[in-house]
Model the fold of this input.
Amino acid sequence: MDRPIRVLIAKPGLDGHDRGAKVIARALRDAGMEVIYTGIQQTPQMIVEAALQEDVDVIGLSILSGAHMTLLPRVMELLRDHGMHDVLVVAGGIISDEDARILKEQHGIAEVYGPGASTHDIVRFIQEQCRTRA
Amino acid sequence: MDLAQALLEGNRRALAQALTLVETGGPQARMLLAALFAHTGRAHIVGVTGAPGAGKSTLVAALAAHWRRTGRTVGIIAVDPTSPFTRGAILGDRIRMQALSGDSGVFIRSMASRGRLGGIARATGDAVAVLDAAGFDMVLVETVGAGQGEVEIAATAHTTIVIETPGAGDDIQAIKAGILEIADLLVVNKADRDGAEQTVRQLRAMLSLADLPADGWTPPVLTAVATRGEGIEAIAAATERHLAYLRESGRFAGREQERARRELRLILQETALARVHARVSSSDWDALIAQIVARTLDPYAAADQLLDRAWSNAGG
Done:
């Protein structure tokens, strides 16, 4: 059936800057996706619980606090615990190339976006990934 | 069916997937709903509606927290509008419901209104049925901001709570008149603001003019400051009193009948249209539409033709 891609946008950790997350949410909405926006200061448990209840195809994690190497792997671990291997996870924020490589290769984050990333690229990546997974 | 079984056994992922299925619709959704149907009819279904920004999400979260403290489980459906242009939606109701996170007695699902035929009414009704079958004691449905949806919710819910805010003034008199007919409870939220008492007085005055049956239910007008949890206990108590009233007065059966009648009609509309779409080619549609535009065929006659074709093709 033809149903919109559902995306959870969440901000793990303690920083309160959600402008980037809102810009992404808006871009995904404009691309025809249903975006569940959960707000700031989410624990990995809260994020995975919301993703489960909302049965999303994609989780977008925005993180600027620097705690990405503890919080993002924890999210991935909890997703695996719940059998949610099929959920695509992308991250955005201030994340070094080396950390991005580790997050992708060792933890299963599909893509990592830095401050200059274009929303167009993010939208296209999600659409392509969801199409091949469907 | 595996999904139904898992859902009935309390598997939350199965519940989430079942909600996706009924929201999308189609033959699998129908099979699932058929398997769950015998398990529905136990929950107290409460609708919450009001203008955008009136505090619906906050009130729903506060009520849910209250009912959790009294040991009841709560399922929540929160509906936000779909963009008519992109089909996308931003569903932000969970932001105000974070305090409920981590409680396995609560399940929150955001839904986009999607605007398809039978639209949100059918999808919401089905989602309510799924949460009901999953065993939640209370099922709370938060509508999109006031509009057509508010009348639909009254047909889905046992108890409808309408939220007003102070100072909305004369601009919303027309809405209030419509709202009076569906409200079982009226809540003036943000009651710490100026003008709350006046709003309460206005609503009571309007209710006194309404043609309410003498032996019936008079919607109470309550105040709340949902962000601080003030007034929530009284709203919960009035909600429970309303259900008791429905049962004791015999009106519960009447509402259920009305609900079933409406649901059947919606399903019939949607099924009939789907059948026409499946049996009539798009070029035949286009040909009929061209005739209507050319004024050689009126739209009612065109609809008759489509119905004839949909059913005659079925036999052959």
Notes: The first strand of chain B starts at residue 44 and ends at 50. Chain B has two domains: 40-258, 280-315. Chain B touches chain A through 30 residues (CB under 8 Å). Residues 142 and 221 of chain B are 19 Å apart (CA to CA).
